[in-house]
Amino acid sequence: MLKIEDLHVKIGEREVLNGLDLHIAEGETFILFGPNGSGKTTLLMTLMGFGNYTVTGGRIIFKGHDITYAPIHERARLGIGMSFQRPPTIHGVSTRSLVELCGKHGQNGHASVDDLAERVNFDHFLDRDINAGFSGGEIKRSELLQLMAQAPDLVLFDEPESGVDLENMALIGKSARKLLDGFVAPHPQKSMKEQRARHKTSGLIITHTGYILDYINADRGQVMFNGHLCCEGRPRDILEHIGKYGYKECVRCLSK
Ligand SMILES: Nc1ncnc2c1ncn2[C@@H]1O[C@H](COP(=O)(O)OP(=O)(O)OP(=O)(O)O)[C@@H](O)[C@H]1O
């Protein structure tokens, strides 16, 4: 699904990612850990194609297409979706109109915007401007709703837990799981088996706390340290290790 080869990325004059390789298979969920400032968000923003992140070397291949220098809209059309850590407020644009733009709803048996919004308890917010005065949990639910409407093949989640209380975490975690399972906009004429075969969603998720791991099936994880990936393993094991020893072992792992 996604292949990143020897990726180098600069922000301004500073090289933040320096020679990163990563493969994520179809339907696989990959968890990214790492200390503050190590380059995790930079990787996600680069994959989505944002302009401040300059690729100075390497390649990004998505579903067989070289998207290293493709514009954001082309990546979104190909099937990459992203939930931001701190998405911007957009005055004058309702959440409903953005969600409508994300996909085809109420057509050919697909769920309507109102149906999707109800699933993340967001129906009362549809006519408010995007993120205007939204609480931390509301911002995450709005992000999820947009992703559910888009139904991408690869979902990039930047810290789905940040600013979210425990009750909202359960809702967000369960919705993220459905999104990764590909069941967000069920088609009434197709069986679950057919839909699963048709749409396997891959995930790349940044987490510090690991709360999201209580809800999703995470296959594999790695630690980002100073723009390099290291310490591959089962996400739960990595989290436990970081909890006990911090990131100092990763420095040793990188210097091997
Ligand atoms: N627009 C920018 N201009 C200059 N430096 C930047 C910019 N955006 C990010 N950086 C720097 O790039 C480095 C990597 O930042 P990034 O946000 O990718 O880290 P992160 O691993 O996601 O951190 P966190 O866990 O705190 O979210 C940091 O040192 C950050 O200050």
From TrEMBL:
Residues 2-251 form the ABC transporter domain. One of its GO terms (molecular function) is ATP binding. The keyword Nucleotide-binding applies. The keyword rRNA-binding does not apply. It comes from the Bacteria. Keywords: ATP-binding, Nucleotide-binding. It holds the Pfam family ABC_tran. PROSITE patterns: ABC_TRANSPORTER_2 (PS50893). InterPro entries: AAA+_ATPase, ABC_transporter-like_ATP-bd, FeS-cluster_ATPase_SufC, P-loop_NTPase. Belongs to the ABC transporter superfamily. Ycf16 family. This is Fe-S cluster assembly ATP-binding protein. The lineage of its organism: Bacteria, Pseudomonadati, Thermodesulfobacteriota, Desulfovibrionia, Desulfovibrionales.
